[in-house]
Design brief:
The complex is a heterotrimer of chains A (about 160), B (about 325) and C (about 500). Chain A is mostly helical and about 160 residues long. Chain A is about 75% helix and about 0% strand. Chain A folds into 2 domains: about 60 residues; about 90 residues, no CATH class. Chain A has a two-stranded antiparallel sheet. In chain A, helix 1 runs antiparallel to helix 2 and helix 3 packs across helix 4. The longest helix of chain A is centred in the middle third of the chain and has 40 residues. Chain A is flat, with a radius of gyration of 25 Å. By secondary structure, chain C is mainly α. Chain C has one domain. Chain C contains 23 helices and 2 strands. Chain C has a two-stranded antiparallel ribbon. Chain C is globular, with a radius of gyration of 22 Å. The N and C termini of chain C lie far apart (about 60 Å). The C terminus of chain C is likely disordered. The chains are: A mainly alpha (about 160), B alpha/beta (about 325), C mainly alpha (about 500). At the A-C interface, helix 1, strand 1, strand 2, helix 2 and helix 3 of A face helix 9, helix 10, helix 19, helix 20 and helix 21 of C.
Chain lengths: ~160, ~325, ~500
Amino acid sequence: MRAAEIVMAAALMALSIYFMVHATVLPIGWARGQGPGGGAFPFWLSLVMLLCAGGILVRELMAAYADRGGHRGFVSRGALRDILIVAGSLLATIASIHVVGAYVAIVGFLVFYLRVMGRARWRTIAALAVATPVVVFFFFEVALRILLPKGITEPLFIPLYAQFF
Amino acid sequence: MFRTALKTAAVAAGVTAALSLVPTTAVQAADWQPNKPVEMVIMAGQGGGADRLARLFQSIIEKNDLSNMPFLPVNKGGGSGAEALRYMKDNAGDAHKVMATLNSYYTTPIRTDIGVDIANYTPLARMAVDTFVLWVNADSGITTLEEFVEAVKAAGGEWKMGGTGTGQEDSLVTAMLEQEFGITFTYVPFSGGGTVAKNLIGNHIDSTVNNPSEQMAFFKAGKSTPIAAFTEDRLQVFPDVPTMRELGHDLVYTMQRSFVGAPDMPDAAQAYYVDLFTKLAATEEWQTYAAEQALLTDLLTGQALQDYFLAEREKHAKLLEALEGGGS
Amino acid sequence: MDVLTLLAEGFVVSLSPLNLAVVIVGVTVGLFIGAMPGLGSVNGVAILLPMTFLVPPASAIIFLAAIYYGAMYGGAISSILLGIPGASTAVATTFDGRPLAQKGKAGLALIAAAAGSFVGGTISVILFTLFAVPLADVALAFGPAEEFALVLLAFTTFVALGGDDVLKTIITIVLGLVLSTVGLDLISGQPRLIFGDLPGFYSGISFLVLAIGIYGVGEILWTIEQTRHKPHVTPARIGVRDLLAGLRSLGGSVKAMLSGSFLGYFVGMLPAAGATPASLMAYGVAKTTSKHPEEFGKGAVEGVVAPETANNAASTGSLLPMLTLGIPGSPTTALLLGGMVMWGLMPGPMLFLEEPEFVWGLISSLYTANFFAVAINLALIPLFVWSLRMPLHVLCAMVIVLCIVGGYAPDQRMHDVWLIAVFGIAGYLLRKLDYPLAPLVLALVLGPLMEKSMRQALISAQGDPMTFIERPISGTFVAIAVVLFLLPLVRRLRRRLAGSGTPASGRTSA
């Protein structure tokens, strides 16, 4: 847990420095008769963040020297596996939307997730994998007229457009 | 030099307007029609003037069955339209995307290097031209341009001119005024024309260069006074308001509302959209709306439109140079 | 009473069969759109705007207003059931709505939200009816300096929201503010913090993306970790008896409802402010004035009622400057304004004189819309609660699909979907380390308004910061805000001084 605190504080400090460097593209000072420049807000606020994260870093480091207790793990190994599966499948799904479109990606995600994480029966999985894209299509595309990305599956939808629009 | 630039631009605009009277729909329109819904990319966020207009077009298209597929508005207003311009460029050759433009179509690529050249986009139709008028709060008692210039001078640079974001239309018009009259304003940028109008009536700013539609309601209620119009001719809705030109100042500035397609749009698709927008421009709903909002509706299509865009880009490059180089 | 005759004539319009049907369809559609995480009243009105040509102009506007109303009711549903605020106006509803749902009291929370919305809507419509015209001038008195002071006031809510660790609270507030500056700087017209020129960042980081990421994806990761060894189903059931019990337990929230209604209406009326600060301020007020402030954040009914009352009251309030001045206070009212202009109705000071039939028809339709919204909402509560009885993994899978699709839908950018995943994972890690996340989300909502109004005011005042104190309205607000910021500190200090001898008040960390 303490190691995680230290890593996070360091990461936040790095992030603040990154923001500060980018903020200096615009003036960060107080322009006479105008008030703060365009970079002032992000720059000075990031500096506050840097100082606070630095404070946490120092605090945790000192605590780490003072006592060797507090060795509660950040996550248990089993939970870590679950978290990685969920986060990984989410990222993979989003990446595959670019290629195979939202519908295929969502069905793929549902089948994978429900089988691996949920250990659901195939009957349940099949029902959800069919119902979800149909509901999504009718709610978003037909009723609300919001087109979802189709990727290479675009041609398959042309007859559907002709039917429902 | 600034003034000559304006004059040439005005002449160029006049010539192109004349050319536009010749119908350009020579290509047969029935060759192509969309087989999926058409994305109508809007260069501005939801609720703004450009957005409202695009949604109006969408409903007129649906009401009159002008297209077999619906037009679906998508807002990509980020970075003053930079996002929309990049999106269209990334979808070069796509026949199912049209973009509703405003003047940021030229100003954004000039101001920030986003790697697009509007000469490559496919011109479709210029539906309307919006106009600008100089406004003050009615309580100020100012009614003429001389009184206005007097008052600004007396304020010694503290006269607050409200407008949309820096680098956008209102700030350009403000810069034109500063140059023409040798005066300086404190320019206060707001997020939209409606907010600007409200701040004028609430006396938080001293003057604006709002579009007529944005001030119409306050004008009718006697809360704001139009001083002069930045137009070629007097506006029908304000017959008593002189143009800047009548007053001896050659200041003309307009905001175009056009549609363009992605670069390399197929010719047949271009012909289809030009035909569609030509029909749209003739509908009664559009004509009534435009008249109420004091929009000028000279339709421009095809090459004439492209020439207009390029001439306008030229003009804006000079304006922006004067604005940012001169430093107000 | 002149107003009452006009209102009666308005009811003749709004109770016509067509307008009644339009209201019922409008609130139902709005309810479902609002209940979708990601989609709120703006999207609802924008999407359905072109459909309105099917009916005459007055009915069209009544339809749009009904969608607006329905979506405001619906926003609470995803806040409570999924913990994902559907719109920024419903963020405050998650603070107590989500804990209630986790305790198996989702039905109670939904009833409380519906009842609060109804009361807020009704009181504000009555205020609207009586004081529409004179109050319009108040909205005009609000310039940039006053807007800034108002945002400052809304920021005092942070005091109530922060965690125990002051450094971490400051970090999340500041991070939210910095993220809010991403995109185009309005004042100079230049892009900033666009991370290597990614076009997706040109338009800044939308509040919804962060909220869906943190409360959607982040929450799922959190839930999966917490429930690993005990697969549980939220024991949510609801029957008529629960409904009645729920309504009865609202008795204690009368004060929250009243303060929420008035606060919501007046804050909502101010252009630029709108329903989000209103709901936050109402939550803050409810917490400070409550007899049991310690229950807030852990599932207090008042904590759901107050923001829901306020955001509905504010949505009525924001119609006021739109109708009387033609000033849209929010993107949704801007679209409504657009709709009216499209149909040849020019909002503004003359509208009440030129089109009395339309104006009063619309006002009276707000009464009917409010009535149907609450009725339909209450009728559907069992269905919503039932949806929580899905097995946990099915629910998680559905929420992830909703996050992806709902995150894509508003602006149709894959960029946003990627950001949701990133924010979700980062949010989960921050939460594991006890960084408070609500301040992060709120800072992102209020940040742009704060920076913009502050800089506009300073430019107007030639760079003199005294403008915030010298202007009467702004000065008053700043003073109240300072008092509210200092109050908890003083209280804590006094408690510490008084309690230094007694061991009872041990828990006053940092």
